[in-house]
Amino acid sequence: MSGFSPTEMMTIAAARALKNDDVCFVGIGAPSAACNLARLTHAPDITLIYESGTIGTKPPVLPLSIGDGELYETSVTTVPIVEMFRYWLQGGRITVGFLGAAQIDRFANLNTTVVGDYENPKVRLPGGGGAPEIASSCGEIFITMKQSKRGFVEKLDFVTSLGHGAGGDERQRRYGLKTKGPTRLITDLAIWRPHPETKEMEVASLHPGVTREAVQESVAWPVRYAAALEETPAPTKEELEVLRDLQARTQAAHARGTTGA
Fold it and tell me: What is the pLDDT of residue 2?
């Protein structure tokens, strides 16, 4: 790919998935970059909510954590975390949850807890935080991750956040969830969607210049493709300029130890 990086393609493709009237529960990192890019381009009225209780926030730079000051300073209001989860999230008022993870399986179940055995792990990860509740209570879930066999695994070491369980209607039948669960997985190589019946994630769109071989080499299970496989439109000049400006501001602000505009 020329003119843009795989990470930029991933972020831009993820941003495009959001609508102007969405109420979005935002995760830190790649999800935050995508959501704020959407806000700065085609979705200026999107409502961004972070786990710390900030509602309608419009940070001038990307936060390093949910406790960063710019989230509070630019929000419409800030509510207690208990109210955030009970009234807003579990009350069904959030249309999209945007998550990342360390591991994902073919049914979009996520692990952010441990790599290896739980009692004696190779790596102990940050944990679930609010992700399990976000995964079960938001109207639908978008996931952003870079593809690798370390992350796209045949079997999760720990299920932190439920995707589609073992597939099919298990999410609804076994767990009684009425929300859609993961409807889109955006990576640095492709856009994935769940099969309508099996709920196994399958590639719906390849990013420019990406081959099927490259996708399979970075996934531990046999990859399936949608019948009408598409190519992701390349980033526009505006999308790249806005994203790069946002990242440059963020880097400069964090380098000097402040998050001012």
Answer: 53
Provide the domain limits for residue 232.
Answer: 6-255
255-259 CB contacts, 8 Å cutoff, 24+ apart: 259/59, 259/60, 259/61, 259/63, 259/68, 259/69, 259/70
The pLDDT score that the predictor gives to residue 214 is 97
Q: Cα-flanking dihedrals φ and ψ of residue 190, to 5°?
A: -165, 170
Q: Are strands 182-186 and 190-194 parallel, antiparallel or unpaired?
A: antiparallel
The catalytically annotated residue of 51, 133, 200, 202 is: 51
The answer to whether 200 is a known catalytic residue is: no
pLDDT in tens, 15-50: 999 999 999 999 888 899 999 999 999 999 999 999
> What is the total count of domains within the chain?
1
**260 found inside a domain:** no
Q: Stretch 111-128: mean pLDDT, rounded?
A: 93
